[in-house]
Recover the amino acids of this structure.
């Protein structure tokens, strides 16, 4: 198994996840300097393992809202003893979680957005568009959460569905929203087949793998309020960075990357007042600097090895301590 790959047994199931752009992440976070690092979406602990292996002065606090990921990460990081701690939580809740004690003065933090290979591949999780998959898509696990993706499709208004599809870069979002509403009048959506059929009907042909992936990603993002969590969580993590600490974000969707780009640019600006104000009334100084003027992308070799990395964009921001 290569660097950055993780495979752990959790309740008889293999939790496998290949870390995306591990060398670029390590270079950006600079673990050779030591300190406490936050992996705010630890998944299979591929990035966390690389950080801990980089030096004995490194400590890692990992967070994930998926209990299976938390269990797998704890098992993988056992050899590092007290240098590693894993918490079950959403990164947006760091400021409200009692378990988050000690998440401060961070030398660096990582947000690896999206879903793991395990979550996509395990049919019970309901992320896949493979035939017969239940429309679940809850990031927090499978226990007692019903079928929230099906609930969204069956209960949202046509306007709300249109927004979900439009934000998911679906060009025919209006027609697709209408088609979903029309179909659910006779039979509620319950499996991947229902949603794929609606998409194919709108397209007038069989939907491609890429088109299905884009649509299912849009529904997943809406079900888990991932954009809201990102907008809130970025500032939560920034406020816990030490001077010189870096925040690294891996995004896989244009809206995610747009939020990160806009947020980093605002933090790096001296003034964020509306242009119509006659004088500055905001903080009047930058909070830090953008390290990556343009997002870093995975190389061809990595994309061949791990096709799910192909849409990744990596951005880095450094805290000035002000």
């Amino acid at each position: 198994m290569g660097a950055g790959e993780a495979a752990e047994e959790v309740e008889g199931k293999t939790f496998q996840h290949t870390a995306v752009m591990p060398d670029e992440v390590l270079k950006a976070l600079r673990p050779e300097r030591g300190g406490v690092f936050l992996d705010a979406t630890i998944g299979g602990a591929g990035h966390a393992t690389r950080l801990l292996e980089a030096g004995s002065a490194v400590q890692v606090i990992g967070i994930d809202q998926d209990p299976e990921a938390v269990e797998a990460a704890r098992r993988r990081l056992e050899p590092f003893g007290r240098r590693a701690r894993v918490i079950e939580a959403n990164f947006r809740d760091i400021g409200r979680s009692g378990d988050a004690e000690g998440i401060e003065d961070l030398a660096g933090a990582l947000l690896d957005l999206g879903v793991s290979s395990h979550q996509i591949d395990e049919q019970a999780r309901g992320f896949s568009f493979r035939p017969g998959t239940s429309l679940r898509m809850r990031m927090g696990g499978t226990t007692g959460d019903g079928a929230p993706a099906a609930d969204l499709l069956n209960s949202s208004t046509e306007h709300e569905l249109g927004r979900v599809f439009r934000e998911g870069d679906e060009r025919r979002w209006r027609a697709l929203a209408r088609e979903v509403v029309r179909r659910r009048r006779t039979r509620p959506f319950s499996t991947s087949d229902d949603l794929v059929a609606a998409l194919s009907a709108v397209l007038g042909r069989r939907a491609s793998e890429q088109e299905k992936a884009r649509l299912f990603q849009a529904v997943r993002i809406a079900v888990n309020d991932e954009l809201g969590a990102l907008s809130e969580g970025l500032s939560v993590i920034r406020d816990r960075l030490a001077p010189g600490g870096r925040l690294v974000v891996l995004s896989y969707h244009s809206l995610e990357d747009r939020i990160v780009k806009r947020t980093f640019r605002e933090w790096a600006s001296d003034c964020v007042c509306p242009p119509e104000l006659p004088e500055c009334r905001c903080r009047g100084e930058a909070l830090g600097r953008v390290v990556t003027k343009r997002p870093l992308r995975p190389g061809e070799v990595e994309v061949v090895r791990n096709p799910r990395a192909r849409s990744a964009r990596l951005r880095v921001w450094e805290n000035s301590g002000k």
User: Anything to note?
Assistant: The longest strand covers residues 241-251.
